[in-house]
Amino acid sequence: MNILEKQNIVKKLVSAAAMSFALLGGAYLVNNQTTQTVQAARHVVNVQTPGAISHYIKLANKPGTHYFNKQLEMINWAANSPTYNMHGEKPELTTTFGGDDIVGTKTINDKHYFIANNYPGHFLTLAKDYYAPVSYQINKGKTLQTYNRGETSDDNGDPVYLDSVGKNLKFGHGKYFMVLDKRGIGNRVKIQGEWYLATADQHGYLRYIKQSDLRKMHKAAHKYNVNDARFDKHGHLIGHIYELN
Hints:
By secondary structure, this protein is mostly beta strands. It has helices spanning 35-41, 50-60, and strands at residues 13-15, 28-29, 44-47, 65-75, 81-82, 94-95, 99-108, 111-118, 121-126, 134-138, 144-147, 149-153, 159-163, 169-171, 176-179, 188-191, 194-201, 206-210, 217-219, 222-223, 230-231, 237-239, 241-243. The strands form six sheets. Strands 10, 11, 14, 15, 16, 17, 18 and 19 form an eight-stranded antiparallel β-sheet that branches.
């Protein structure tokens, strides 16, 4: 499953740079302002570091509906992240590894969402599903067994996953994996009694690895063919350029 094939929202090219925490401020706009006023007041801010993402997730946890005086370009590193309409109902649209134009926050029935601007309307995405992945390299002399995961749909159109579909692969020293956060929808699955985490390899393909196998890996700097993601020597995300289809 090629991650780049799963991106399906508005096409946009964004050049990412390390974000200063000075940009993390910025108040909410009042709720009764018109869409035109909100649009006119915004400037684009790229959000990609774990700290920056956490900051906005905390803002999303506030009750009510709020619009920012800025537009956030945020990466949602989830293997299968659903989107919702403005009433919190799931529409026939998913965004996966996509960069949403976040324009505000909304709370419905104690669930906290980001408001993503999908012209000519809006849609919601769960704030808790936003985070930055970590880059790992397999330790010298170790191997790592990975699983593909098949996907189909039932009669209602809902996704159905077929675990352990495809060839089981073993990679040696020199291979890199971008390990996704286990909190994300679809990022952590149980296969034959063991937990597996979703990862992306350096070529942009989605795999699942045993959670227990992380001890065979170490955090490392690397560049991925997934949104041109780049990581520092500690394995932390420091930049990306992404193009959406």
